[in-house]
Design goal:
Elements (H helix, E strand, L loop, with lengths): L2 H10 L3 H15 L14 E3 L2 E3 L4
Antiparallel strand pairs: 1-2
């Protein structure tokens, strides 16, 4: 690691506690549930007054 990078990290995280807190926060963010994706093919479509899948 370059000296400049070390210096910047020391400024942002001056203590071991600050580093530990940041690591815990980042791990918590990574463990959050992911958002749900919806696809148009999953949504039923009305056709001639009847509901059917979009791929028909």
């Amino acid at each position: 690691m370059q000296e400049l990078e070390k210096s910047l990290l020391r400024e942002k995280y001056p203590t071991k506690e600050a580093v530990t807190t940041e690591i815990i926060n980042l791990e918590a963010i990574l463990n959050l549930s992911k958002s749900t994706e919806a696809f148009m093919s999953d949504i039923p479509v009305a056709h001639s007054g009847r509901w059917q899948n979009a791929d028909h």
